[in-house]
Amino acid sequence: MYSNRVPFSTTMTTLNLSGPVAPAPPGVSPSFSDPPNEAVLAYSTSTLSLICVTFFTWFRFFVKMHIVGTLHVEDYIIPFAWLAAIGQIVPGYMIYEFAPIIHDWDLPLYKFSKYLLYFRLGAIFYNISILLIKIAMLIQVLRVFVPRGSQSKTYYIVHFLIWSTSLYYVINFFAMVFTCNPIHKAWEPWVEGKCLNMSAIAITTGVINLLGDVTILAVCQRVIWKVVKIDRKQRVQLSAVFLAGIAPCVFSVFCLYYNTLQVVDSHDFLHNSALMSLACYGEIASGMFVLFLPVLPRFFSWFKTRPAWTRLTHSSTALESGNVGVTEEKKDRKVRSLWHISYTIRENVTRCWGTHPAKGDQAPRIEQAGKVKGKSGEDFGSMGSMESTVGSECFFSEEIIRTRGTT
């Protein structure tokens, strides 16, 4: 959602490259050698984002690969989102070498060109990363809340979001690469030529981005509270897990705010754009957090069965894993497809479903084989990707026990 609105419009014949990007306010003197800056904020935020994105990505991959024993479509997408996130953050470090959150009047124009180039590279990788993260989230939502073969409201909403988001960001990618004619005018704004209105495109992207995040959050909460048949306590706990989606929404708001501020207050482009970049780092990290959070219960369930933990707690037996997802003895079982969702259920099914489950299309049948099936008999099986424990008595996977009803 980065824009590229520069604080001046001039030509090469009237330009002094040794002058500041914009005039200083009254009573303020430009300082090119040692300008006031916020380097600590810049480096600490970027580094923290880099650490979080890396940890969230590869922790999830470790759990899915070595504990759950199954990878699904989104698990192959997330590492590419991580690479794009690195591509977003690295140009920021390159900018901080000469402009660690400073003001327009403290940077000479000959350095401003380099700033715009690195800023644009970061923006391109940001758009790639945010697209891949959203697609991974949506695919996960599709597998969690939509039974295979179902064409419910949730199915159509999620598919609409997947394809419309993909189309928009692909168009946006080419718009950012070919913003200007000639292309290098994008980072050398004093060169003769024409450019698209990237400020309008960036604000539009920010709005679409925020609406997409809110829609994903709303879809998950609607299914949890209106469709899934579990008791209130378990519903609250499951809802809390998916409420982590609020974090990307918050950072999206900050990104949109600073992006809009660039347009309203174009006399301090450097400062506003730098703060917007930090907010966008947080948006990427929070998106990875949303994808990471659901595997935590499965990890802790696995960890508590390790000998070291058993000795530490003086337990004579390993903690029961709840038979959720792909257990150790099932790791070698062939997965039917990357989209397959399978899970097993505790022997005492009434802990999850009660003694009198709902009737009709929304009531799953518990077969002797331990599989949950819809009224027509389709296998919903366990995703194995996000293993989450809902309450102390009933274990669900990412991958909650779902109903066949219209969602």
From TrEMBL:
It comes from the Eukaryota. The chain crosses the membrane at residues 40-63, 75-96, 116-142, 154-178, 198-219, 240-261, 273-296. The keyword Transmembrane applies. It is a multi-pass membrane protein. Keywords: Membrane, Transmembrane, Transmembrane helix. It holds the Pfam family Fung_rhodopsin. GO terms for cellular component: membrane. The keyword Metal-binding does not apply. Belongs to the SAT4 family. This is Rhodopsin domain-containing protein. The lineage of its organism: Eukaryota, Fungi, Dikarya, Ascomycota, Pezizomycotina.
